[in-house]
Design brief:
38% helix; five-stranded mixed β-barrel; 7 helices; two-stranded antiparallel ribbon; alpha/beta
Length: 213
């Protein structure tokens, strides 16, 4: 298989590369921050070479009680959580507006196989929806609203929907895998454990290499 892994920034890319041990089946690209940049850069790479699978990978915020710091989340659905419209009755998604869908289902085969392999390797992993947002959540009120609006929401990041859209238009299967560095909610940098999340991402990348090659 030829596999494209997209990370937002270099520190995530480096963690993935350490886990992959220079495996020639993988190409690791930089998506940039945000769904628009991720979609454009992923589409450019997909147009330049054939790939069998696209993975959006990196660190993320985890929803309390579902995905704890240092754990992993494998998406079963990728949701553009703030793509829609505000109304007097609350947020309206693209689906509710009739303009398409802000939800992208992930193929079931690969997430199940990878999740089982991660668990066998002793890593803590949860499967659930990963939200893509343009503005990272910074309050308890917003975290609570997202949890109520999207039951089971496990993690929040900024690129997955963009990567998935590019892969979907290119006809390539896609996944999203995130390592949790902080809880979704009030912005408290002292509580972030980025190095722990990067280590989990590195370990997960090693498992990806074993499963996919």
């Amino acid at each position: 298989m030829n596999i494209l892994v997209m990370t937002a920034v270099e520190v995530e890319r480096d963690a993935v590369l350490r886990g992959l041990h220079n495996c020639s089946s993988f190409h690791v690209g930089i998506a940039g921050v945000g769904a628009a940049s991720a979609a454009a850069r992923t589409a450019t790479l997909l147009a330049a070479a054939p790939y069998d699978l696209v993975i959006s990978a990196g660190i993320a915020g985890g929803f309390a009680g579902t995905a704890e710091i240092g754990s992993l989340v494998m998406a079963d659905e990728i949701i553009a959580a703030d793509l829609g419209a505000q109304s007097a009755d609350g947020f309206l998604s693209l689906d509710e507006l009739g303009f398409g869908s802000s939800r992208i289902q992930v193929d079931r085969e690969w997430p199940q196989r990878i999740t089982e392999a991660l668990q066998s390797a002793g890593l803590s992993v949860h499967t659930g929806p990963i939200l893509t947002v343009s503005t990272v959540t910074g309050s308890t009120a917003t975290a609570t609203e997202l949890s109520k609006r999207i039951p089971g929401a496990a993690a929040e990041a900024m690129e997955g929907y963009g990567v998935a859209i590019a892969a979907q238009y290119g006809g390539v299967p896609f996944l999203e895998l995130r390592a949790i560095s902080n809880p979704v909610g009030p912005r408290d940098r002292s509580a972030w454990r980025i190095q722990d999340a990067l280590q989990a991402l590195q370990s997960a990348s090693n498992v990806l290499m074993e499963v996919l090659t």
